[in-house]
Amino acid sequence: MTENTAKKTALVVSAHSADFVWRAGGAIALHHAQGYAVHVVCLSFGERGESAKLWRKGEMSEEKVKTARRSEAQAAADILGASIEFFDLGDYPLRADKETLFRLADVYRRVQPHFVLTHSLQDPYNYDHPMATHLAQEARIIAQAEGYRPGEKIVGAPPVYCFEPHQPEQCNWKPDVLLDITSVWDKKYQAIQCMAGQEHLWEYYTRVAQQRGVQAKRNVGITSQRDIVYGEGYQSIFPRVTEDLA
Amino acid sequence: MTENTAKKTALVVSAHSADFVWRAGGAIALHHAQGYAVHVVCLSFGERGESAKLWRKGEMSEEKVKTARRSEAQAAADILGASIEFFDLGDYPLRADKETLFRLADVYRRVQPHFVLTHSLQDPYNYDHPMATHLAQEARIIAQAEGYRPGEKIVGAPPVYCFEPHQPEQCNWKPDVLLDITSVWDKKYQAIQCMAGQEHLWEYYTRVAQQRGVQAKRNVGITSQRDIVYGEGYQSIFPRVTEDLA
Amino acid sequence: MTENTAKKTALVVSAHSADFVWRAGGAIALHHAQGYAVHVVCLSFGERGESAKLWRKGEMSEEKVKTARRSEAQAAADILGASIEFFDLGDYPLRADKETLFRLADVYRRVQPHFVLTHSLQDPYNYDHPMATHLAQEARIIAQAEGYRPGEKIVGAPPVYCFEPHQPEQCNWKPDVLLDITSVWDKKYQAIQCMAGQEHLWEYYTRVAQQRGVQAKRNVGITSQRDIVYGEGYQSIFPRVTEDLA
Amino acid sequence: MTENTAKKTALVVSAHSADFVWRAGGAIALHHAQGYAVHVVCLSFGERGESAKLWRKGEMSEEKVKTARRSEAQAAADILGASIEFFDLGDYPLRADKETLFRLADVYRRVQPHFVLTHSLQDPYNYDHPMATHLAQEARIIAQAEGYRPGEKIVGAPPVYCFEPHQPEQCNWKPDVLLDITSVWDKKYQAIQCMAGQEHLWEYYTRVAQQRGVQAKRNVGITSQRDIVYGEGYQSIFPRVTEDLA
Amino acid sequence: MTENTAKKTALVVSAHSADFVWRAGGAIALHHAQGYAVHVVCLSFGERGESAKLWRKGEMSEEKVKTARRSEAQAAADILGASIEFFDLGDYPLRADKETLFRLADVYRRVQPHFVLTHSLQDPYNYDHPMATHLAQEARIIAQAEGYRPGEKIVGAPPVYCFEPHQPEQCNWKPDVLLDITSVWDKKYQAIQCMAGQEHLWEYYTRVAQQRGVQAKRNVGITSQRDIVYGEGYQSIFPRVTEDLA
Amino acid sequence: MTENTAKKTALVVSAHSADFVWRAGGAIALHHAQGYAVHVVCLSFGERGESAKLWRKGEMSEEKVKTARRSEAQAAADILGASIEFFDLGDYPLRADKETLFRLADVYRRVQPHFVLTHSLQDPYNYDHPMATHLAQEARIIAQAEGYRPGEKIVGAPPVYCFEPHQPEQCNWKPDVLLDITSVWDKKYQAIQCMAGQEHLWEYYTRVAQQRGVQAKRNVGITSQRDIVYGEGYQSIFPRVTEDLA
Asked: Which of F25, F41, F31 lies closest to F9, judged by CA?
């Protein structure tokens, strides 16, 4: 699967401006450390649905909340080593028209990602999340089409991974990939701490990482020296093409 | 996942003596070419259920059929570069008691496989196949247990892949891995031709390889120079532990 | 789960103006009898798709059908003891824009339901039904968000139950709750009889209630004196929080 | 299920202008040969997403591609013996508003189909396909409603079959019907050859037909003289009503 | 599917001696009326688990219960027009060794069925039922094998249908075939009345037939004159091979 | 569901002698505190498969390991307030014959449980676990049968809950019940500490309890004063019969 492009790249499509941190912060930091250029698209700031603590401060407006969320997300992206852009589509509900679809397809064309991270296919607690997945998937298909903006370089078939939702079993999410993020855990936890408005989730997602770490250790083929302490789970949407099954 | 053992190894658990050829011949030849020691266990010769052509010859007995099937399988294994052993448990129905379970667990301990290939979890056309999967899975668990033959070296958690059944959708089998076997297709087709008793399947499984090849090409992340023509599909049972998502 | 609010409440979201009767009439009457204030939202009158008998009368217009359906539904709600309102969104197809979503979210905020009843997640015979479920679910999420109409009292996480579709297995609907409606069956059957335009369904849904009654009896933990004759089945969307497993 | 109408009819709803050929060409030719009037609706020309070869010719415009695709499809329909119409909705993405829904419902009313063929329920590689299925299903429901264009002849409940997607297992598509198309294979292959822009698929879909042919042979109840060589797989959405189980 | 054998045949594999009546009595009578020879195998008498009323009579022994159950089943089979045999394997739990498997395979060979009816694949309320299905399926496979009792006439691939369990949704049973049994309902109800020991089920299964009748009517392609009042639901295990999709 | 028996009871069927602690310790302590008599059956000591640390001590024999495991389990049961018995069937593999089945059925008859806790339906990492579930389910069915040891008091239909496996998503386990165990967490953690041989799991299962606690809090209908910190998840096998949906 290797080829001689200048730099490997990855794309993360996040419904709200903090999702990429809780759910994919480890993958971002890890691939950044491996030399990937990772780009994050935040479809909304999560200003309505995921900023409860900010709203309770009083004297708040949607604009103020969005500003606060934007700086938190930017700070987290900086720590993780990713570039980031904000579509500001609004949340609760998140809605996307054709123009948004094309806008995201254009990001695919520009980034030419080697892999894509986004939300789970279902989430009964959060309808913005599967909407983001749907958008990320459909934009990828558009970006693959020769007839969309003919003449531009189309994208290949980058694997798409669904990151972990808040209540995994309720979303019928089942990880088939466990990513060892032990080496970058400090970065991820630093990024998590940027999310001042959702402090109640810091320890929750630390424990998620610990549980996935233990599980990763249990699924290693041949016992190696290396110790896995922190992990992230992912569910693939497409089959993996490989030449080595070990 | 790398470690400094002398040689990488793989284990294939095949219900009948030809299954490993149709379903995993490419994986075997490919990993052999990569330096793996691949070992095949044939639980039965398929003497009753998968030797129709031989039986129709007349003057046949179960022993004669088994002998014929054994030499076909041995010849195929030789071509693919695998060692092979025969449990001779009988087929239609295949049954396994505790002693057989331990016998297979001992093979796991001896081989210390880096990955395992076996049948699909379901098959309404063939009850021996899921029985073989069940046995392969349970033996793997026994071989992992410290308390089974204490003092012996236990096995780690080698990934287990289900190879393709004859009618994939009817078995609820869904490949999440597409293996590029283009470089070893000639070996696989040579091995297939050893199966004189099932000539009607030669072209069927050639087409399977071609279809999986086309599909593999459609799922490659970034278009590469390399051309995929033949493939094999696999379904993982366990999550994959990795540090690279591309 | 108890708390000291004045009165317990429930919300029923019905795609067409008769669904709440066939599918949830027992639950409504039962909880009304227990002191709940039950509120029904009919998204449409089912004027196109579920009023065949009325249309066959001749000299009919959409307005006349809607008027007839409204009085049937009002009469049924009165018998069951529920308040009712009509969104009049049209049916076949039922469609909902953002304003409708907010309108329903506002109902959630006003009612503050202890539980919610709506349609199944799938129905290949009726696309309005899962559309209603989707709307009910997404409105619930909006109503939970601090940032939606900030300052208003948000709703908690009321359990949502999917009531029985017309052909349950075809909708992949599986009841995990069987409600004993024996004590209010007379009310439900009275309400059913208000549906003059769908008389062919009266006996069908009587038999549904009898079958669910028999099944409820078969699932009672410890044989009790109480006799269950009529039941309603429900499928939960969310896990139940409890302190007692009996 | 027989009745004395003048002529039996079938409706095929195809997302792009070539889908009906690869996926249902055999069924169309076979039923045409049996006296059915088969009508095809192409929702789009697949001008963006499925005309890569045409775009690579240079000097192309969307209109030119559409014209080329229309003549290919018309030629194929002629060979298969079907009438055809083009909705020209655009592809990648395919979108349908209420008017389109009614337009298709009107086709149902006009054709009064004895069965309907359309795409699979899911397809992670192609979002236009399940969109077409959704539209075909919802239009069928509208066409059944007495209150839609009251006075017109409504349709019954024609069975709906999902034809085979490009990567069947990845679409969770499972055929429960195998159609013997051996007698019309030459017609189908002729029609396939009309698709000059997608020559790389000719052999792929020939092999699909051969594999489904072998599988059909394996599922015939009692060995008959008749030899099945080519087949097409279908997945039913609704239960079949019958008086004979053989 | 047609061939020139003397007479069409069917095989019913029933875990307990009354199951074939409740669950498949209509199919049996209907096909008998169409000229099929239908043969029923009762694996057990259901003496322990399904004879509660008999046991409550007092002065009962297992032998007495079995005798009573045998005459009920024989009487029902006579009414339905089927031959019947009893394996007397015991129930609660039903267990089958290799000899039983071969015994049933021999029945397949003798009967050469055009279709097979048996239990659902799952039933959390009754472990004997899926055990019977497993046995019926595996015996069918043995009977297809050239190498089992070589020289005998093997069986083809008769379709296998799972009949309706007591609580269908809980068994994940989903009917894809609705059989119109209106013309033989009187026979079925007569046969049902032979089951003196399970009188509480008479009305339950009458209502099941009525519900499936209504559902069958809703799934008829083109409205016909014929009126369906009673039905039976079946779930196919294998794909159907056909040349007509209407 | 209430009735006037002397005391409510519960039954826990545990494959190995520590499973009931990690997976159901909270439920046991909680219901003990509510006055239930909870009885635990340990099918094996987990001497082979779940005692790695003990085996590594050296100078160990199966008997010594079993003795150590028995005292750990007894101590944990004492803390949780449960009675306990050991079937000593052996583990890796766990196997059960008819006599074992009857032995467990007799426990059901004796205990007359109001609910039952056991393992998940699937577990690819541990084949003893689903074997235990199978046994618990089938024994329950035997114990319900009038014809098994006629004259004895049969059991009703106690709900059965599957407790949480080690890697929940991989076992396709989905909790539909979240039990608030905050009030008894200290007991559970004390019991956990009895498991000296599996110290690596203490923190793992503490985190499991914390995650389920957070999730329980998110699923409470109406925000209550009560704070949930620790939880246990369960998956029901049977539908719940109730008269209150809140």
From this structure: F31
The answer to whether residues E50 and E198 touch, using CB atoms and an 8 Å cutoff, is: yes
Q: Kindly state the DSSP code that residue C49 receives in the 8-state scheme.
A: T
Give pLDDT, residue D123. Answer: 98
CB F242 within 8 A of CB C176: no
Q: How large is the average pLDDT for residues E15-27?
A: 98
Complex prediction ipTM:
0.94
Residue-averaged pLDDT of chain C: 95
Q: DSSP letter for E31, please.
A: H
Residue E200 has a pLDDT of 85
Cβ neighbours of residue C57 closer than 8 Å, sequence gap 6 or more: none
What is the per-residue pLDDT for F225? 61
* Neighboring chain F residues of E55 at a CB cutoff of 8 Å: 146-147, 150
Residue B155 DSSP class? P
Interchain contact, F218 vs A168, CB within 8 Å: no
Sequence-distant (6+) residues with CB within 8 A of D4 are none
Among D172, D175, D207, the residue with its CB nearest the CB of B207 is D207
Rg (CA), chain D: 18
| Residue B4 confidence (pLDDT) | 47
Contact between chains at C218 and E170 (C-beta distance less than 8 A): no
Quick: pLDDT tens for A122-153: 999 999 999 999 999 999 999 999 999 999 99
Asked if residue B2 belongs to a domain, the reply is no
Contact F158 C236 (CB under 8 A): no
Q: For chain B, which chains pass the contact test of at least 3 CB pairs under 8 Å?
A: A, D, E, F
Which pLDDT score, from 0 to 100, does residue A56 have?
87
Q: How far is CA E189 from CA E38, E53, E69, in A?
A: 18, 20, 18
Here the tokens at position B83 are 């060692």
Query: Does position B224 have pLDDT exceeding 70, yes or no?
Result: no
Closest partner residue to C147 (CB to CB) among A47, A93, A126 is A47
Largest CA distance in chain B: 58
Asked whether residue E4 carries a pLDDT value surpassing 80, the answer given is no
Per DSSP, E153 falls in state P
C62-80 helix and C19-33 helix, angle to the nearest 10 degrees: 20
Model confidence at C225, in pLDDT bands (50, 70, 90)? Answer: low
Residues of the domain holding B199: 9-236
Q: Domain for residue F245, yes or no? A: no
| Domain-located, residue C81 | yes
B47 located within any domain: yes
Q: 3-state secondary structure string, chain D?
A: CCCCCCCCEEEEEECCCCHHHHHHHHHHHHHHHCCCEEEEEECCCCCCCCCHHHHCCCCCCHHHHHHHHHHHHHHHHHHHCEEEEECCCCCCCCCCCHHHHHHHHHHHHHHCCCEEEECCCCCCCCCHHHHHHHHHHHHHHHHHCCCCCCCCCCCCCCCEEEECCCCHHHHCCCCCEEEECHHHHHHHHHHHHCCHHHHHHHHHHHHHHHHHHHHHHHCCCCCCCCCCCCEEEEEECCCEEECCCC
User: How do residues D155-195 score in pLDDT, each as one tens digit?
Assistant: 999 999 999 999 999 999 999 999 999 999 999 999 999 99
* CATH code at position E164: 3.40.50.10320
Domain count, chain D: 1
Per residue in B17-42, is it b (16+ CB within 10 Å) or e — as a string?
bbbbbbbbbbbbbbbbeeebbbbbbb
Which among A98, A144, A237 has the least Cβ separation from residue D93? A98
Would the pLDDT of C68 be above 60? yes
**CB < 8 Å to E56, chain F:** 146
Residue F221 has pLDDT above 90, yes or no: no
pLDDT tens for F104-143 read 999 999 999 999 999 999 999 999 999 999 999 999 999 9
Average pLDDT over residues E31-49: 97
* C chain contacts of residue A51, beta-carbon cutoff 8 Å: 146-147
